[in-house]
Design goal:
Blueprint (H helix, E strand, L loop, with lengths): L1 H35 L26 E3 L5 E5 L6 E2 L15 E3 L4 E2 L15 E3 L6 E3 L12 E3 L4 E3 L13 E3 L6 E3 L13 E3 L4 E4 L13 E3 L4 E2 L17
Parallel strand pairs: 2-4, 3-5, 4-6, 6-8, 7-9, 8-10, 10-12, 11-13, 12-14, 13-15
Antiparallel strand pairs: 1-2
Bound molecules: 2-acetamido-2-deoxy-beta-D-glucopyranose (NAG) (4 copies).
Length: 244
């Protein structure tokens, strides 16, 4: 009786390890493929330094996994990484990712417009990383996003409307060279939005009224743009809750 229970238990332990192992192999393969896409400084611990075949990828620097072994976070902040993140990068097969931090690197080329393939993303930081080219419009399809920072990159075009990303709390788009005007929909209904930084761009047109009535707003930065038109709406702002 005791022996058969033990055997059944061992079977399940073996089964779980085996199944998990397959998933880990898949994730490890994708991470090694990602590493091979870039140049980096191999003595910078914020980079891909100990990512190798011989160890468990969930133990690597700057990688976080969930209990089943799927990669859910990558933090390569200031990783001295250079190169292009291609539209077909292995990055976009890491579909369990919740957090992706790549700020302060030396990427060249555009921000790929493939982020809709990472539908679980909550935190995305690509700030100060050398990106040029069009604003990746599929970011506006990430309905789980809470934190978005693209500041200090050289983007072109206008900002897509984020009204479907209802969980957004923090949007940093300062110093991104963006132009165009904001529509009445752009940040409409983002009841959790507490920080919005659009400063140092070339935005024009009028400032939409809804920006001043978002209930969680604490800091709104709009300076150094080319906004025009009446701003009498500002008088409706409850100054006890607005600091910025
Ligand atoms: C590589 O990173 C190390 C540690 O951060 C640093 O001391 C070194 O100067 C870097 N080398 C280059 C070429 O950037
Ligand atoms: C592989 O990474 C582990 C740490 O994760 C390290 O101890 C080991 O030396 C590395 N092996 C090679 C060949 O770089
Ligand atoms: C993004 O969402 C819009 C509708 O909200 C849809 O038309 C578009 O195809 C989506 N784009 C991608 C790349 O998923
Ligand atoms: C806003 O934040 C609250 C509290 O953190 C959370 O429960 C809610 O799901 C968030 N999203 C929306 C759309 O209100």
């Amino acid at each position: 009786m005791a022996l058969s229970s033990l055997l059944i238990l061992l079977f399940f332990v073996f089964f779980i390890l085996f199944v998990d192992g397959q998933y880990l192999d898949d994730q490890k393969k994708l991470l090694l493929e990602l590493k091979s896409e870039f140049k980096f400084n191999s003595s910078n611990p914020n980079s891909f330094v100990n990512w190798n075949e011989t160890s468990d990828c969930c133990e690597w620097n700057n990688v976080g996994c969930n209990d089943s072994g799927h990669v859910i976070s990558l933090d390569l902040t200031s990783g001295s990484i250079s190169g292009i993140i291609g539209e077909s990068s292995a990055l976009f097969q890491l579909t369990y990712l919740l957090s992706l931090y790549l700020p302060r690197n030396d990427f060249t080329g555009e921000i790929p417009n493939q982020f809709h393939r990472l539908p679980n993303l909550k935190h995305l930081d690509l700030s100060s990383s050398g990106f040029v080219g069009p604003f990746p419009s599929t970011l506006a399809n990430l309905t789980e996003l809470v934190y978005l920072d693209l500041s200090a990159n050289f983007l072109t075009g206008s900002i897509p409307s984020f009204h479907n990303c209802k969980n957004l709390k923090w949007i940093g788009l300062a110093l991104t060279n963006l132009s165009g005007s904001l529509s009445h929909l752009h940040f409409q209904g983002l009841t959790n939005l507490s920080v919005l930084d659009l400063s140092y761009n070339s935005l024009n047109g009028t400032i939409p009224r809804h920006l001043f009535v978002l209930p969680s707003m604490e800091a709104l930065f709009l300076s150094n743009n080319q906004f025009n038109g009446p701003i009498k709406e500002i008088s409706i702002v409850d100054h006890s809750t607005l600091n910025g």
